[in-house]
Design a protein that fits this description.
The structure is a single chain. By secondary structure, the chain is of the alpha+beta class. Among the domains are: about 10-90, GIY-YIG endonuclease (3-Layer(aba) Sandwich); about 255-370, 2-Layer Sandwich (Nucleotidyltransferase, domain 5), CATH 3.30.420; about 395-555, UvrC, RNAse H endonuclease domain (Nucleotidyltransferase, domain 5), CATH 3.30.420; about 565-619, Orthogonal Bundle (DNA polymerase, domain 1). It contains 19 helices and 21 strands. It has helices at about 10-15, 45-50, 60-65, 80-90, 140-155, 160-165, 170-175, 190-205, 210-225, 225-245, 295-310, 325-340, 350-385, 440-460, 470-485, 530-560, 570-580, 595-600, 605-619, and strands at about 25-30, 35-40, 70-75, 105-110, 120-125, 130-135, 255-265, 270-275, 280-290, 315-320, 345, 395-405, 410-420, 420, 430, 465-470, 490-495, 495-500, 510, 515, 525.
Length: about 625
């Protein structure tokens, strides 16, 4: 090992200078990239285990092969080290740390009680912004059904802030009694915040307080002979009670708890979190790790801290399949985050043990769906490497496509698949610099050049780059690659061709999809039913969908542009006020300068520029 890494001796010698204090250690490679971040009760004792053989994790050999420098940050206690380690992992994304990544498919409900008139929002990311978040919800249908129930019984606003603060009369939601109309109607904020509390109770799985309140209002309405209002309350009660009976209790008391479980095969791990609120399972979340060489106890400890290091609610009880490392310190850190006591429990019998078994079953199912799919992709990757004579097995594959309409709004897009699955965080869109004429070849050259330049700088080049097109597009992509002097496998994928049969004009012949390889003039046909063909079609269809969506958006933006967009000092807000008042750009031609200045809240000089520009545009 020391022969392979010339920096290792110096790093090992520096360990004796580390203090026996709690803190975080940061390991970097020769390029200064952070490759691992760890926490320790005693920095010197912990880091020493890397070199003495006391740490038996499989990944240690790779860390030692790359480490060039070692840095430290001393903290006051272990809990501070926990928090700092998590922050640094998020910041640097070290290669050899376990990182808990939320699936973008999971939806959450966000409600910010710090604003004047809160509303329920659907979001896919949790921010540490002081708002409350509920979820994740694995199935969007389940979540939308829940929100529909809340909308029918709690009259909260649903519009965005932009619509809310610019509305001049109540919308349809107000007319059908699904919104109190705080945008235009004067209502008591205390009453509104009581409705917010009722909505939060439903999201937490507790419908009883709201049902009780609605029954009280129904009885009062009946006593006052307001039978129509009483009927509205009755219908809302029925909706809530029907919703409640469809969600079976899993405990008799109604506790709030999260249940963690994992399933492992060698370094492949799947982990599931079941969320139980008021005695009901309201959601679950799954994670997977493909290089989890650390022991289960250390992995679970890392997952727990990262999972709750956000705006996620920390429940009163967390069920675990086994004791984790630093249990006491972790409990203290989570207690501090929650603001009151909580329990970390390893159940051995009873309902809690059954919940743990259910979580473990879900973890195993997630493992099968995740890693068995990866195993299938390994076969695809092997076939692809053989067929295309690639220099390596492709794990990260990217595909480029171009879209234009008569030379206008030319755009490019790139999608990324990792181990056979879309990696949407790595999708990219490109505005092409040369507009005005349809030049797919030039656009391919520009997109590939920009992507590879970025890849060299960020050290995230793909294993294989696929170009949607034929020989010409492949040639331009290779030209861009060679200009940068890098080694990278690039192929192009040409669509299926159809043509009339040679002797029977009423019949159509279809030629299979083809790939073009570097240095070869003839295309290689793909077998129609091969798994490799299906994968390549999926890749091509995804980039096509992505680029077309981007292109349509760009064309819409262009079509909505006007002469006002070309005048310095006329932003979106001023433009909106002018169009709202006068109806169209052409209508401003005969409007006095003073009136334009008043409506647009601008100087007469700027208003004169608008009149001049509008008059010139109309000529």
């Amino acid at each position: 090992m020391r022969e392979e890494n010339p920096h290792l001796i110096a790093v090992e010698a520096s360990v004796k200078h580390l203090p026996k204090l709690p803190g975080v250690y940061i390991m970097k490679d020769a390029q200064g990239e952070v490759i691992y971040v760890g926490k320790a009760k005693s920095l010197r004792d912990r880091v020493r285990t890397y070199f003495s053989g006391g740490d038996g994790r499989y990944s240690i050999q790779y860390i030692l092969a790359r480490i060039a420098t070692l840095e430290k940050i001393v903290t006051e206690n272990e809990q501070q080290a926990f928090a700092l380690e998590s922050d640094l992992i998020k910041k640097f994304k070290p290669r050899y740390n376990i990182r808990l990544k939320d699936d973008k498919a999971y939806l959450h409900v966000r409600i910010d009680e710090n604003v004047a008139w809160p509303r329920l929002e659907l979001v896919r990311r949790i921010d540490n912004d002081g708002a409350k978040y509920f979820g994740p919800y694995t199935f969007s249908y389940e979540l939308r059904t829940l929100l529909e129930v809340i909308k029918k019984v709690v009259p909260l606003r649903t519009c965005t802030d932009t619509v809310f603060y610019n509305r001049q009369r109540p919308c349809l939601e107000y007319q059908i009694k699904r919104c109190a109309g705080p945008c235009c109607i004067e209502i008591d904020r205390d009453d509104y915040m009581e409705w917010v509390d009722q909505a939060v109770s439903v999201l937490e799985g507790n419908t009883k307080p709201l049902v009780t309140a609605l029954k009280r209002e129904m009885d009062r309405a009946s006593a006052e002979l307001r039978f129509e209002d009483a009927g509205v309350y009755r219908d809302r009660i029925d909706i809530l009670e029907n919703f409640s009976t469809r969600h079976q209790y899993v405990t008799s008391i109604g506790e709030n708890r999260d249940v963690f479980a994992l399933y492992r095969e060698e370094t492949l791990v799947a982990l599931t979190v079941l969320q139980v609120r008021n005695g009901r399972i309201i959601g679950s979340q799954n994670f997977s790790f493909s290089e989890a060489a650390m022991p289960d106890e250390a992995l679970m400890e890392s997952v727990l801290w990262q999972y709750y290091d956000s705006s996620r609610e920390v429940p009163e009880e967390i069920l675990l399949p086994f004791e984790v490392e630093g249990m006491k310190t972790l409990r203290g850190a989570l207690k501090e985050r929650r603001g009151r006591a909580l329990q970390l429990v390893v159940p051995k019998r009873g309902i809690k043990f059954r919940l743990l078994g259910l979580a473990e079953l879900n973890a195993k199912e997630h493992f099968i769906s995740t890693f068995h799919a990866e195993a299938r992709y390994q076969s695809v990757a092997q076939d692809l490497a053989t067929l295309c004579r690639l220099t390596q097995m492709p794990r990260r594959i990217e595909c480029v496509d171009i879209s234009n309409f008569q030379g206008g709004s030319i755009v490019g897009a790139l999608v990324c698949f990792y181990d056979g699955r879309p990696s949407k965080n790595d999708y990219r869109r490109y505005n092409i610099s040369q507009q005005g004429k349809p030049d797919d070849f030039g656009a391919i050259y520009e997109v590939v050049l920009r992507r590879l330049q970025s890849g060299v700088e960020k050290d995230n080049l793909p294993d294989l780059l696929v170009i949607d097109g034929g020989k010409g597009q492949l040639a331009k992509a290779l030209e861009a690659r060679d200009e940068l002097g890098i080694a990278l496998d690039i192929i192009s994928l040409a669509k299926m061709k159809t043509q009339n049969a040679e002797h029977q004009s009423d019949q159509v012949e279809k030629s299979p999809e083809r790939i073009f390889l570097e240095g070869e003039s003839e295309a290689h046909p793909l077998a129609p039913d091969a798994q490799t063909t299906h994968f390549m079609q999926t890749l091509r269809d995804e980039v096509h969908r992505f680029v077309i969506t981007f292109h349509r958006k760009k064309r819409t933006q262009v079509s909505h542009r006007s002469v006002l967009d070309e005048i310095p000092g006329v932003g979106r807000e001023r433009k909106g006020r002018l169009l709202k008042e006068f109806g169209s750009v052409s209508a401003m031609k005969d409007v006095p300068v003073e009136e334009i200045a008043r409506v647009g809240r601008m100087t007469k000089a700027l208003a004169q520029k608008i009149v001049d520009a509008v008059s010139h545009d109309s000529d």
